[in-house]
Specification:
The protein is α/β, with parallel strands linked by helices. The protein folds into 2 domains: 44 residues; 220 residues, Rossmann fold (3-Layer(aba) Sandwich), CATH 3.40.50.150. The protein has 9 helices and 7 strands. α4 links the parallel β1 and β2. α3 packs parallel to α4 and α7 runs parallel beside α8. It starts with a helix and ends with a helix.
Length: 267
């Protein structure tokens, strides 16, 4: 009798699976529709300068730039926080059918202490550890945003310790196609720029997410670090490309020489 009842229950599993697949399909269909309603109807903020969707628009613009100009290379992001921008770029690359190896660099312990000019009074700063988010939390958030773990690599640690020449040997890291820096402070940005310099190619999109922080002061934060880097590398040409969100700015980079090979960089 129990065997017969067990067999009678078996067919019920198939409708449940079909219902689950239907719910997933409807969710995947309605989620982008809901975002578009929020974006264009409720917030009426579809522009690049939107504080709500500017970063997402920048990701799509950068992906279209790579596609149009046939640029191949990696995506390097410095300062992930919870991974929202990282996910935006992953889906932008997918939409434009671009195969882009993705690497994220973060301490996963939050911001370091402000130093140098960034520590001066009169500018908004954050406490040490602000924006802290563990690597496990970032991976969980990326999974929630439908970014598969196999699509990216994360490099933990503060940059003075983690950005070593050995990283250049990682398959796909060199050359870079898009570099996103969201480090806030001058010193962290300086270290990130030093690391990416040999990976840059003609057409690399270099994005500073917090360029206009510190009241857009030319000597502070990301803007100050980028200005200093440009003075130290006169062979690098920066072409302003797009402003996005409230504080973001993107450039196109044109080095005078091609990026070095992985073996040369690691030696």
């Amino acid at each position: 009798m129990s065997v017969r009842l067990a067999f009678q229950r078996l067919p019920a599993a198939a409708p449940r699976r079909r219902a689950a697949r239907l719910r997933t399909a409807l969710r995947d269909l309605l989620r982008p529709l809901g975002r578009h309603v929020l974006k264009y109807v409720v917030l009426r903020a579809p522009s690049m300068r939107s504080p709500h969707f500017g970063a997402e628009e920048m990701a799509d613009l950068a992906a279209r730039f790579l596609e149009t100009n046939e640029i191949r290379g990696s995506y390097l992001e410095f300062g992930l926080y919870r991974g929202a921008a990282f996910a935006h770029f992953y889906h932008a690359f997918r939409r434009h059918r671009l195969d882009v190896p993705m690497f994220g660099f973060d301490s996963f312990e939050g911001l370091p202490t402000a130093g140098g000019a960034d520590a001066e009074e009169g500018f908004r700063r954050y406490a040490e550890g602000y924006f802290a988010c563990t690597e496990a939390e970032v991976r969980l958030e990326l999974r929630r945003r439908r970014v598969p773990a196999a699509a990216y690599a994360l490099v933990p640690g503060f940059y003075q310790n983690s950005l070593t020449p050995a990283l250049y040997e990682r398959p796909g890291l060199v050359p870079s196609a898009v570099v996103l820096i969201d480090c806030f402070y001058y010193e962290s940005t300086r270290l990130a720029l030093h690391f990416v310099t040999p990976t840059l190619q003609s057409g690399t999109v270099l994005i500073c997410n917090s360029y206009f922080r510190f009241r857009a002061h030319p000597s502070h934060g990301e803007r100050g670090a980028l200005a200093e880097w440009a003075r130290q590398h006169p062979a690098m040409t920066l072409t302003e490309y797009a402003k996005f969100g409230t504080t973001g700015l993107a450039y196109i980079v044109h080095p005078s020489t091609a990026p070095a090979t992985r073996s040369a960089l690691a030696s």
